[in-house]
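Re-running the complex after MR caught last week's input typo. The corrected sequence lines follow. Everything else is unchanged.
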Amino acid sequence: MDIVKALAIAGSATVLFLVFELIRRGRLKERYALLWLFSGLVMLILSLSRGLLEYIAGLVGIFYPPSLLFLIAFVFLLLITLHFSAVLSGLSEKNKRLAQEVALLQQAMEDLQRSSEPCGKECR
Amino acid sequence: MLLMNKILIIVPAYNEEESLHGAIQDLLGHVPQADILVVDDGSCDRTADVARQAGVSVASIPFNLGIGGAMQTGFQYARTKGYDIAIQFDGDGQHLAAEIEILVDALQKGGADIVIGSRFLNRGEYRPPFFRKIGIWIFSRVLSAIIGMPVTDTTSGFRAANRRVIDFFSRVYPEDYPEVESLVLLHRAGMSIAEAPVRMRDRTGGRSSITPIRSAYYMIKVLLAVFIDLLKK
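Corrected-run output:
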């Protein structure tokens, strides 16, 4: 077993292990872990099977098969960050709505307080 | 004319403790029949206190959302409270409360859904600096082409909206530099847009941070947003 293969297996296994651990401890929601799990799994399979890696590398014309691993890892990372950007956009929209709701509720509360005072500020 | 409708004046204010008092007094003096809502957009100064002391309603957003988020809060308030007309009036004292009547009249007589107070129609005394002039010209051209009618002042923050627009804006409102983009969205939603001539005061507290580079950045960003809006849905 060459060093590249050992490194690749260790790397993808570590990613998978970390993701599993985070899910198990409730630190990572499954919804956001799917892409990580999938990419870890694909990387692990390709690291284990040199034949499959060489076959795919040959198909796309990559001379040094392990560099296919880099390509795949890169594409997955790109997808994951894109996914994050989309999630972030959704969150910032929700965050904005919440802030607006807080502002309006606070205003309504001030209105209530003012109307429940026995006399308005005229008699102060 | 002004008496028949429930009118809300939305005053977005971010750190305007110095000019806000003047703006509110101007409004109270010229349009006493309208309600005023100051939307304090997460100011760090006494903006909200100044508004409360003047006796007007204040909605304080817990952190700074930007003018888009602040205006949308105002439209949400207008929709829940059932206002017929909502007017955007900036808290920095640039707009003249006496001219609100012009916008409201145009809104009621012209049958448009939104009326923009334009600094360039007719008695335009406003002379923008060179770079801003180019930007304003480009925006005006692009918007006029998209909307299919001439719009002279696309970046004006002095506007009057009817119920349809209030309802629309309470749901959808662009965030960063919303004036230009909101017009495209309104047009796409089938609303009609009109302009009425207004004047503008010069800034009293000289704090305009617009440099040529920022203007260019602002322009590219807004144009991009406008074109993306055209592709949406």
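None of the earlier attempt is carried over here. The interface with chain B takes residues 96, 99-100, 102-104, 106-107, 110-111, 121 of chain A (CB under 8 Å). Residues 10 and 30 of chain A are 23 Å apart (CA to CA).
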